[in-house]
Amino acid sequence: xxxxxxxxxxxxxxxxxxxxLKEKAIWLEEEKAILVADTHFGKAGHFRKSGIPIxxxxxxxxxxxxxxxxxxxxxxxxxxxxxxxxxDHNDTWTELLEFLDxxxxxxxxxxxxxxxxxxxxxxxxxxxxxxxxxYLMGSLILSHxxxxxxxxxKLNICGHLHPGLFIKGKSKQFLKLPCYYLSKQHLIMPAFGxxxxxxxxxxxAAKAVMVTTxxxxxxxxxxxxxx
Length: 227
Prior knowledge:
Layout: E1 3-5, E2 8-13, E3 16-20, E4 26-28, E5 33-36, H1 43-49, H2 57-73, E6 77-80, H3 92-101, E7 107-111, H4 120-124, E8 128-131, E9 134-137, E10 140-143, E11 155-158, E12 163-168, E13 174-183, E14 186-188, E15 199-200, E16 208-212, E17 217-219, E18 221-222, E19 225-226
Parallel strand pairs: 5-6, 6-7, 7-8, 10-11, 11-14, 12-15
Antiparallel strand pairs: 1-2, 2-3, 3-4, 4-5, 9-10, 12-13, 13-14, 13-16, 16-17, 18-19
């Protein structure tokens, strides 16, 4: 059911073959769709307004990573699972529009998140197709926040929490890694944006945890479980 290919972790859920990518994105090969969550574009600019000198290149690299995935995988769709833009309108919105326009062969969808608070007319001025809450795709339900109720046999793929696994080492050292977190009928994606934090998740409550590194997605052995 699970296998490794080019650093990715793959499994079948219902009618969908789900690829967990080391780039902190999901590839759905039947749909030719890439899923990314919590890009938080514009967050660097938000901090600079407060006098904190964060370089805008953190977002440029994220745009480049999505573009490379589109080319590598032959994607026809990209779904942003909420928190596409960090807050109110600023100059980095123009960069997003340029990115969308430079990928004319791809359809872009935004499932609205709690940080997606700009006026509707601004979103309407872009190539984004807006999905207010959740989206059903075969056996998968895409949303920003984990849904409270998920129908039997369905898997809710979502973001919002920025899941991370904190691994303790010897001499009081520890490592923080973003992860894909499977709990009950929810698969919570790691935050795609480079300029985001991590929320410590409970390994004991998980069905499976897969951490991401620059080289691969690595399943973590949990107590009495093998991811």
